[in-house]
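Practice problem: predict the structure.
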Amino acid sequence: MDPHLEPVHTSRGTNGYISVRDNTSDMSLVFGSFSNRWTLGDDEYGLKDLTVEGVFVDVGAHIGIISLAVLLDNPKATAILVEPIPENVALARRTMMANTLDGRVKFVEAAVGSGTIRYGGVDADDRFVGNIATHSGHVIQAKVVTLAQLVKMAGGHIAAMKVDCEGGEWEFLNSKALKDVGLIFGEWHGSGSDYNGPDRLRGLLDATHEIVNLTDVGGIGLFWAVPR
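Answer:
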């Protein structure tokens, strides 16, 4: 499965390239933050209005989509990409090199929360999206990195952080190091039969951050939280 470089532009109109694989969910995920010559993207995280000066941490970086958008639009930002699936890390590296951004990024091939990562069967479009609990197919044991370790890598403070780690967020965000993180946004995952995800998220973040936007579409949703 040979990847190719797809020309894209950010919600601010900055041009770039991203390495994607055919017959996967790569491009559909790209359109959550980028547009190209024939499709208008969604900007699901509101990156058009995001300003980052300092270290941006991308937890669950996949193929580097969000980090690429942040770096293209924010020349004073650097990024730490955290991703456990080797195939995704390889594509993210290729993307950063194609945009001459490799000097502004650090790759951490690791998971958060749990080191047991599952990703889909060979016929699934989303087979390169890792999950700590579901999917059949490959199972890998990844190194686990904590928020405190990432804060240290960032020099003591994370300016902004995206978290989309398919269930790993609960243990990862249960950390005293939250006080050293600025804006936090991303996706939360849960099950209404097991716990109330929004309330659980508030319980983790309320001491250090105010949740200013939160959606729940049935056990999953997006959130934005700013420091108190």
